[in-house]
Design brief:
Layout lengths: L1 H16 L4 E3 L6 E3 L1 H20 L2 H32 L6 E5 L2 E7 H4 L12 H13 L3 E8 L6 H21 L7 E5 L12 H7 L1 E8 L4
Parallel strand pairs: 5-6
Antiparallel strand pairs: 1-2, 3-4, 4-7, 5-7
Helix pairs in contact: 1-3, 2-3, 3-5
Length: about 220
């Protein structure tokens, strides 16, 4: 019991040190648990489980504390990175979505490319420069670049176009200092629609590039 009480105190201290434990959801306005808190709680659960499997209650408590520290640190860094991106990308037309341990940036076709082309539009340079700036500040982040199209045209054309658009973004970011090893580009064609392809607005919604920032998996 002594170890569990101590662990609870550690988690509480960690959450307090991470500043606020909740934040306002940008879409709904409701309060939600921020990633510092979520990371600490998930880290504790994972560490405790591993500790219990290895040895006993004492080890489980120690594992909980260690996991909470690691999970809370990652969550806190993601919270800071999300805040930086929102500041940098305000009024840019880029949508910023937070999904657990990843941050997703949605760049619609009209600000990124001309219709049917893979050359970057000048309007996307500033947002991409902002992304590169934040990536330079948070080196433990990797970037997955996904190209997407609407359902118009053949699979072969859409797959090629979405791949070329994703690679255009990667090449630009590499040119402004982002390491190639931190990035992966993939075209998904029309296979991952956000909206219905039955309307003009829905098809415009689906023509996009998404940049997904995730914790680094590199050792």
């Amino acid at each position: 019991m002594r170890y569990l009480v101590t662990t609870s105190v550690l988690i509480g201290s960690l959450i307090i040190s991470g500043c606020q434990t909740t934040r306002q959801n940008a879409m709904t306005g409701e309060e939600e648990t921020n990633s510092t808190t979520s990371g600490a709680l998930l880290g504790c659960a994972g560490g405790a489980l591993l500790g219990a499997m290895i040895k006993n209650k004492k080890t489980a408590a120690v594992g909980c504390a260690a996991g909470a520290v690691a999970g809370g640190a990652i969550g806190h860094q993601l919270d800071e990175q999300e805040a930086s991106l929102r500041r940098e990308l305000v009024n840019s037309g880029v949508q910023v979505h937070r999904e657990n341990d990843r941050i997703r940036l949605v760049m619609r076709d009209q600000i990124a490319f001309q219709t049917g082309k893979s050359d970057l539009s000048p309007s996307i340079y500033s947002p991409l420069n902002s992304v590169a700036k934040v990536l330079a500040e948070y080196e433990e982040t990797e970037l997955v670049i996904g190209g997407h199209t609407d359902s118009t045209g053949s699979d072969a054309i859409n797959d090629r176009l979405s791949n070329e658009r994703a690679m255009s973004v990667l090449v630009y970011l590499r040119g402004v200092g982002v390491e190639s090893a931190r990035m992966h580009a993939q075209g998904y064609g029309k296979r991952q629609p956000m909206c219905s392809n039955d309307t003009k607005d829905g098809r415009a919604c689906n023509r996009r590039v998404e940049l997904e920032l995730i914790p680094s998996t590199r050792s």
